[in-house]
Amino acid sequence: DAKFEDEGEQKHVGGRQAQYDSDDVVETMDGAETAQAAIERQAEAIVLGQLLLRGDKKRKLVDEGFNRHANHDTNLPEWFADDERKFRGPAGYAMDLPEDLMEQAREKLRAINASSIKKVGEAKARKARRQQRALTKIKKKASQIASKSDMSEREKSKEVEKLYAKTHQKRERKKVVVAGGGKAQGGRGVKVVDA
């Protein structure tokens, strides 16, 4: 059985043992769940759901859920909870999950995760097309300015510089101000919201 070390406590994971506690979420240093751990947790939930749909498996899951370790009381004394955590084992809690169902669920989840990259690619392509259209418009305007004979070369270059500077201007985002007790000052570039 594969095991993770989580603050000195060993836990079974994956297709071998199903333990559905909120503590079983594997987290990185910044508090975010790793992609592999998320897939594993979601696959486990999918397989448990599939087993619950079958009558005989559902009964078995429910029966194995009732034992002397099943209820996690929150208002126990601290020393008792520590003692329980130290000595309870996974043997009475879990039901073995079929490895083939686990693998199918993992593959589906990996496919779903990979397909979202397609949307990102499409968005980048749209942005590139938009920029290309804007650039061709500017080139057209620049060639029109360059072909004018009534302007000096210096004026022409300044006009072309202005055109290209407009493409690099970023739109200024509105500042959000939370109106606490009194009146918050709004104005141009400021959005006032309720607390």
TrEMBL record:
This is Ribosomal RNA methyltransferase SPB1-like C-terminal domain-containing protein. Residues 1-21, 120-195 are annotated as: Disordered. Residues 1-12, 150-164 have a biased composition (Basic and acidic residues). Residues 16-189 form the Ribosomal RNA methyltransferase SPB1-like C-terminal domain. The lineage of its organism: Eukaryota, Haptista, Haptophyta, Prymnesiophyceae, Phaeocystales. It comes from Phaeocystis antarctica. InterPro entries: rRNA_MeTfrase_SPB1-like_C. GO terms for biological process: rRNA processing. Residues 179-189 have a biased composition (Gly residues). One of its GO terms (cellular component) is nucleus.
